[in-house]
Amino acid sequence: GRDFREIYAAPIAHMAARGLVEEAEGHLRLTLRGLPVANVVFAQFIRD
After folding, report:
1. How far apart are CA 44 and CA 29, in angstroms?
2. CA within 20 to 30 Å of 10's CA: 28, 36, 42, 43, which one?
């Protein structure tokens, strides 16, 4: 299979630039700034 970072590269970059997610220890995680808007962040990973 393909790596999720490849599939979702654009949304990850967009959210990381806004400080909503970060990559740490090989995992993508919400930042403190991203926690209050977690549903908005998660919605970026729902595909049609």
Report:
1. 14
2. 36
Q: How is the chain split into domains, by residue range?
A: 4-43
Which helix (DSSP H) or strand (DSSP E) does residue 15 occupy?
helix 9-17
Q: Which structure tokens are listed for 32?
A: 């403190």
- The rounded distance, in Å, linking the Cα atoms of 16 and 6 is 15
CA dihedral 21→31→45→3, nearest 10 degrees, is 50
Distance from C-alpha of 31 to C-alpha of 48, rounded to nearest angstrom: 26
Among 36, 48, 33, 40, residue whose Cα is nearest residue 11: 40
pLDDT at 42 > cutoff 80: yes
